TrEMBL record, chain A:
GO biological process: glycerol catabolic process
DhaL domain: residues covered: 4-187
Transmembrane segments: none
SUPFAM superfamilies documented for this protein: DhaL-like
Keyword Kinase listed: yes
GO molecular function: glycerone kinase activity
Name of this chain's protein: Dihydroxyacetone kinase, C-terminal domain
Gene Ontology cellular-component annotations: cytosol
Domain of life: Bacteria
Source species of the chain: Klenkia brasiliensis
Automatic annotation (TrEMBL), chain B:
Gene source species: Klenkia brasiliensis
The protein's assembly and partners: Homodimer. The dihydroxyacetone kinase complex is composed of a homodimer of DhaM, a homodimer of DhaK and the subunit DhaL.
GO biological process: one example: phosphoenolpyruvate-dependent sugar phosphotransferase system
Protein name: phosphoenolpyruvate--glycerone phosphotransferase
A Pfam family hit: EIIA-man
Residue ranges constituting the PTS EIIA type-4 domain according to the UniProt record: 2-135
Functional description taken from the UniProt entry: Component of the dihydroxyacetone kinase complex, which is responsible for the phosphoenolpyruvate (PEP)-dependent phosphorylation of dihydroxyacetone. DhaM serves as the phosphoryl donor. Is phosphorylated by phosphoenolpyruvate in an EI- and HPr-dependent reaction, and a phosphorelay system on histidine residues finally leads to phosphoryl transfer to DhaL and dihydroxyacetone.
Length: 190, 135
């Protein structure tokens, strides 16, 4: 993973989050506290500004800066979760190893399991695809399928869990933004 | 030196009001209570870096007990631990107590000079009076 590639990935993710901001917030207003799109957009805008202001020396510094900015600027639970994902990615040499380390960080931080209707449901299948030697594009496809599979699920984590059965019938906002993260990776990482 | 108290909330107004209510229990007594609440722009949300700074500010060597509201407040408090120096982190307790009841119990015993373990235990018993009354 080169610094340039990672920067391109983050820029594309920020663009996709911005384009899908209203959709993410609409999903979150159906089953949560209606702030996911705005929160993540604010966080990624802050990430790009921080990287611009002080360009990181290497890939690890870039990932740490991204994580530290997200845990501070997002505001909602996606801050600590996406922030931890990037902080844990900083220790690995390849994208599959980094994403796996990040995924394990998300599991430890959020204590969600597959099927709880969270970002885990998109991130886990993407990691599995990469670990099986498949391409980043195929991992993005797996994340998108994971997102779609959250639609019928009943939420067991976060604000959506207060809704019980009423949380079924909508895609999870976190799984939806994670699918965008992998889509951005497919478009920018080799 | 007393144990420091930190309040983490989505809302600055909620945190400040909870602290005001708790401080009613401490007429004329000093106690460090730090607040990390809301987003930079005054909205609802939590900031792990702000929580980390609040814990460092509240820690006078006897450690801190952190009370929080829900959801991202809990995740941000857990994340904040990663950014603390080792010695400060080791003397930080995150309390599962309900924010208002736990805070009132915590400040009273903290101001009385209790240890961090005693303060956390008192916060954890915060719901007992309400439960007894409504039984």
């Amino acid at each position: 993973m080169s610094t340039e590639e990672l920067q391109a990935w983050l820029r594309r993710f920020a663009e996709l989050v911005h384009e899908h901001k209203d959709e993410l917030t609409a999903l979150d207003s159906a089953i949560g506290d209606a702030d996911h799109g705005a929160n993540l957009d604010r966080g990624m805008t802050a990430v790009l500004a921080a990287l611009e202001e002080a360009p990181p020396a290497d890939a690890a510094a870039l990932l740490k800066k991204t994580g530290a900015t997200l845990v501070s600027k997002v505001g909602g639970a996606s801050g600590p979760l996406y922030g931890t994902l990037f902080l844990r990615m900083a220790g690995a040499d390849t994208f599959p190893a980094a994403l796996r380390a990040g995924y394990e960080g998300v599991l430890a931080r959020g204590k969600a399991e597959p099927g709880d209707k969270t970002m885990v449901d998109a991130l886990g299948p993407a990691c599995d695809a990469l670990d099986a030697g498949r391409s980043v594009a195929e991992a993005a496809q797996a994340a998108a399928e994971g997102r779609d599979a959250t639609v019928p699920l009943v939420a067991r984590k976060g604000r959506a869990s207060y809704l019980g059965e009423r949380s079924a019938g909508h895609a999870d906002p976190g799984a939806t933004s994670t699918a965008l993260l992998l889509q951005a990776a497919a478009e920018t990482l080799s | 030196m007393t144990v420091g108290i930190v309040v983490v909330s989505h809302s600055r107004a909620l945190a400040d009001a909870a602290v005001e209510l708790a401080r009613q229990m401490l007429p004329g007594r000093e106690l460090v209570v730090e607040v990390a609440a809301g987003t930079e722009d005054g909205g609802l949300g939590t900031d792990a870096m702000a929580v980390s700074a609040a814990i460092e500010a509240a820690d006078g060597g006897e450690g801190t007990v952190v009370l929080m509201d829900l959801g991202s407040a809990v995740l941000s408090a857990e994340t904040a631990l990663e950014f603390l120096p080792d010695d400060v982190r080791e003397r930080t307790t995150l309390s599962a107590a309900p924010l208002v009841e736990g805070l009132v119990g915590a400040v009273v015993v903290a101001a009385g000079g209790a240890t961090r373990e005693q303060v956390a235990a008192e916060a954890g018993r915060g719901l007992a009076p309400k439960e007894a009354q409504l039984r």
